[in-house]
Amino acid sequence: MPVLQSTLNDADPAYLANREALERQVAAINEQLAIVNGGGGPKYVERHRKRGKMLARERIEALLDPDSPFLEISALAAYGSEFPVGAGVVVGVGVVEGVECLITANDPTLRGGASNPYTFKKSIRAAEIARENRLPVIALTESGGADLPTQSEIFIPGGRSFRDITNASAMGIPQVSIVFGNSTAGGAYVPGMSDYVVMIKERSKVFLGGPPLVKMATGEDSDDESLGGAEMHARISGLADYFAVDEMDGIRLGRQVIKRINHRKKGPGRRGPGRPPKYDPDQLLGIPSADPKVPFDPREVIARVVDDSDFDEFKPLYGTSLVTGWAEIHGYPIGILANHRGVLFSEESEKAAQFIQLANQIDTPLVFLQNTTGYMVGKEFEQRGIIKDGAKMINAVSNSQVPHLTIHMGASYGAGNYGMCGRAYGPRFLFAWPNAKTAVMGPAQLAGVMSIVARQSAESMGKPFDEDADASMRQLVEEQIERESLAMFMSGKLYDDGIIDPRDTRTVLGMCLSVIDNQPIAGTRGYGVFRM
């Protein structure tokens, strides 16, 4: 077997320095996640508990099969914005009655579960994941509707979330709503458009307009129960399909629904149980370079992620800045493209295009391990055809129909982000390591380009060039780009599906491959024009 041979020395000072740097970054991420897990804070959590209610994450835990994992999506959504980190909703993939489901849960301890612009971005991404992978959806609903001060930003795009529910239902993807509290105004359409609705006695409140709005609009006096209570909807309106006596009973009924939907995976399945790697995944903390300008060998990563560290490398002597080859993760066959020395030359581009075509011919998912500074520039490389060769790679990625999974494990700059299947190229899932950086180019390069352009502009107009102002500008631009390229900044904008501990990479990829296996995998046999 082509088992990778690791040359890692975990006593090497460079390894120890890398590990220390990444441990700090992992700790910073965990600190933010702890804040997210704390919901609206002790005051609002305590008030919620005094009402006899479970927290959003407790509801998810009770819903999931015992001891089964939960792959959370976009946990740091809205980081760096004016809105709460996490966007007031928990989203992820978990197993219910043996079925992988897409689960969403409003967090009522954060502004009553009201939806802000990032809530809708996160919900739309969740619907996309469910649709692409044919995952049943379970919505644990308790929301006060739209965050009214930001209605101009959410009213129009918010309508898409309801469209997504009905479109998924038309595709035969079950939509289940368990209503734990208020579901008012636009929020009422979540259960209203779901296939199955569970409501809870004296807890669920579902109406387009609450008593104050009804009074203002019609002059009618009403109360919550008669207007939108669970018993009314179960006995009179017919909106409730199941009537629960308490929260745990509602979760039981939701699990019962999933048990009866006759869900079956339609993918090719695993080739075997999937043996663990021969090398310790804990060492992944010391492999990525603390300095993004210093490359590292992705084979050391692959050896700690794939089954039995067994990797059949493709074209190992050609285009050596890109490592390509075949492996399995938890028994699922995959093709891997991993950046080595960062820069993509013509040879790497052609190698990648051919490899992607081969993966599509044999219907095999692709995993992209990104650590790239982009395509090579310079007169020699332009004359050799880097544009058309890079275009071949991007053509192949764009038209590939097998599922793609992407891990940002270092730099992700320029068009290299595109060729290595960044967010814009529709990977089924995209996760980042805490050290990842994403931007159009490195901070120093971007500031330098702006300085050169400004200098040339001044010369062309015959004006003196202000060196002090230029130095100040370069410093400010570098600081801005550095800040905006960091993993937490990008994750806050939902440009990935979450930041993961590198040691969890194998587990995360395994869960994603299992999700992908819900439907058949078929590669494309046709591409756009490859420029020769």
Could you walk me through the main structural features you see in this protein, from its secondary elements to its overall organization?
The protein has 532 residues and is α/β, with parallel strands linked by helices. It is 41% helix and 18% strand. The chain is built from 19 helices and 17 strands. The chain has helices at residues 13-37, 42-50, 56-63, 117-133, 151-170, 189-193, 211-218, 224-228, 230-237, 247-259, 298-302, 346-361, 379-384, 386-399, 414-419, 443-460, 467-485, 487-492, 505-516, and strands at residues 70-72, 89-96, 99-106, 137-143, 175-184, 196-200, 205-207, 242-244, 312-314, 322-329, 332-339, 343-344, 366-372, 374-375, 404-413, 429-432, 437-439. The strands form three sheets. Strands 1, 2, 3, 4, 5, 6, 7 and 8 form an eight-stranded mixed sheet that branches. Strands 9, 10, 11, 13, 15, 16 and 17 form a seven-stranded mixed sheet that branches. Strand 2 (89-96) and strand 3 form a beta hairpin. The protein is globular. The two termini are 36 Å apart. The mean pLDDT is 92.
Sheet of most strands: 8 strands, mixed
Number of strands: 17
Report low-confidence residues grouped into runs of 5 or more.
none
Q: What would the average pLDDT be, to the nearest integer?
A: 92
| Gap between N and C termini | 36 Å
